[in-house]
Amino acid sequence: MSTSPGRDLETFANPHPERDYTIHMEMPEFTCLCPKTGQPDFATLYLDYVPDQLCVELKSLKLYIWSYRDEGAFHEAVTNRILDDLVAATQPRFMRLTADFKVRGGIYTDIVVEHRQPGWEAPTPVHLP
Questions:
Q1: How far apart are the first and last CA of the chain?
Q2: Torsions phi, psi for 90 (to 5 deg)
Q3: Nearest-angstrom CA–CA distance, 68 and 19
Q4: Where are the strands (E) in the chain, listed by range?
Q5: What are the residue boundaries of the structural domains of the chain, listed by start?
Q6: What is the mean pLDDT of each run of 10 residues along the chain (129 residues)?
Q7: Is this structure's pTM higher than 0.90?
Q8: Residues involved in catalysis
Q9: Domain 11-116 adopts which CATH fold?
């Protein structure tokens, strides 16, 4: 078992690639450092994606998120970087990453970034009574 952070995102084969379905993850312990002050920034990350052929493996995702703990990064930059890395690893049909940063100086910051596979369209939702 690894006890060190790392940037390797492992994947596994989607068990149902014939179907569009959503995977939702919440990561309430994301931290990085403010690049101006060096003080810690805290966020909850929300990841929603429709996998194609691959899914991200959770232990590697945990270690990947942990790897930002001592890195200085602006909220906008780190959120986009994480999405880019996840898209590169999994090539999903759709992926949305929301970073809900906690209050800093009286300001809350939410960053939402998305990726959509060319030609993919979301299925029409079914509304039941």
A1: 47
A2: -110, -20
A3: 33
A4: 11-13, 23-33, 40-50, 54-56, 94-104, 107-116
A5: 11-116
A6: 82 97 97 93 98 97 96 96 98 98 92 96 90
A7: yes
A8: 34, 41
A9: GTP Cyclohydrolase I, domain 2 (3.30.1130)
